[in-house]
Amino acid sequence: xxxxxxxxxxxxxxxxxxxxxxxxxxxxxxxxxxxxxxxxxxxxxxxxxxxxxxxxxxxxxxxxxxxxxxxxxxxxxxxxxxxxxxxxxxxxxxxxxxxxxxxxxxxxxxxxxxxxxxxxxxxxxxxxxxxxxxxxxxxxxxxxxxxxxxxxxxxxxxxxxxxxxxxxxxxxxxxxxxxxxxxxxxxxxxxxxxxxxxxxxxxxxxxxxxxxxxxxxxxxxxxxxxxxxxxxxxxxxxxxxxxxxxxxx
Length: 249
Fold this sequence. Notes:
Elements: E1 6-11, H1 25-35, E2 40-44, H2 49-55, E3 67-70, E4 75-78, E5 81-85, H3 88-92, H4 94-108, E6 121-123, E7 128-130, H5 139-152, H6 154-165, E8 171-176, E9 180-185, H7 194-197, E10 204-209, H8 219-222, E11 228-231, H9 235-246
Parallel strand pairs: 1-2, 1-10, 2-3, 10-11
Antiparallel strand pairs: 3-4, 4-5, 6-7, 7-9, 8-9
């Protein structure tokens, strides 16, 4: 890889951090002292910038990473400076948006889960995040729902109903993390960030993600022809793969 201009592009949740946890000091030091000197680093996540900032310790320094793409790149930063943003409300229009949210809330009101908490629909700049258990659940409840969902397919079944009800809105549904799924205009998945990276002169863009199977929120960018995809299972695996790929200690 000598002489090539390389970018390592990372999913955050499950790839650089445990789900909804912060990056460990040891892994952050590895990225900053061993990886950053040899290639550019970018982050891309479905969460808003505030959440990514908390997880990646960016509150005092947005410039730690060369590019930060929050909400799949709908809000993005280059060298710590915000560039531009897109808005799902303008894309859908208020009437269609409310019909969608009302149907989702009606569906959620009818399903019975082991527990339910609060914040079932979270409106972000570029997507709607739907959480059947509610985002205010504890970590223990989050872990329990993830196991329950694997058996009962709560999220997958809800997505099926939404696709039947709204076939013409041009929306994509993507399951990510432990407890929720994202809804966004088709094409506004993580590949959205690549339009900004295409003109940055990289010879190779290596993407690392943990939800790379079809239906996962890393699948589209993992399989995109513009990236070299690496599937990981957790942050420790990400570090191992980076060490092997770039011959690092």
